[in-house]
Amino acid sequence: MSRIGKAPVAFPADVNVTADGEVITFKKGNNTRTLDTKGNVDFTIEDNTLTFASKSDAREHRAFWGTYRALAANIVKGLTEGFERKLEINGVGYRAAVQGKVLNLQLGFSHDINYDIPAGVDVSVDKNVITLKGVDNQQLGQMAAEIRAFRPPEPYKGKGVKYVEEHIVRKAGKTAKK
């Protein structure tokens, strides 16, 4: 039995949830998100709650049960509160700036890196912290991972792009022989 799948997903009255066959549509204002269950789970919508049930007792259907419930909960959270990721830039001469729909990164290479900001994501830069905000948790995580991959933090001085909550394990440098 899935403990996650059993929990109902409550959504506020301003979020409109409709079902069309196997596709669940979530709408709030001008933001619309869909979740295609591909017939792997059963679901019911009533009294501002969405409940999921396993299609059968097969291992695959029990695994999808909790997964689709978590995806639906993330969509509701994204539409109501939104998600946020923060990246920190450490290093002499390393900086970032938002120029229209492009994030300009100077990370110690001979050239600037221009990263196109996808639709639905708000990016702001405050000194050495890049803040990503949006309604899609997967899109934000992917974007943060791609930005971090341009210059991952190195273990000796900690220079590079890291998540704010990430801790870099430092290594001791070379020591001289006596």
UniProtKB/TrEMBL annotation:
InterPro entries listed in its UniProt record: Ribosomal_uL6-like, Ribosomal_uL6-like_a/b-dom_sf, Ribosomal_uL6_a/b-dom, Ribosomal_uL6_bac-type, Ribosomal_uL6_CS
Large ribosomal subunit protein uL6 alpha-beta domain ranges (all copies): 11-82, 91-163
Residue ranges of coiled coil: none
Entry's Gene Ontology cellular component terms: ribosome
Alphabetic keyword roster: Ribonucleoprotein, Ribosomal protein, RNA-binding, rRNA-binding
Purpose: This protein binds to the 23S rRNA, and is important in its secondary structure. It is located near the subunit interface in the base of the L7/L12 stalk, and near the tRNA binding site of the peptidyltransferase center.
Family: Belongs to the universal ribosomal protein uL6 family.
Subunit field text: Part of the 50S ribosomal subunit.
Entry protein name: Large ribosomal subunit protein uL6
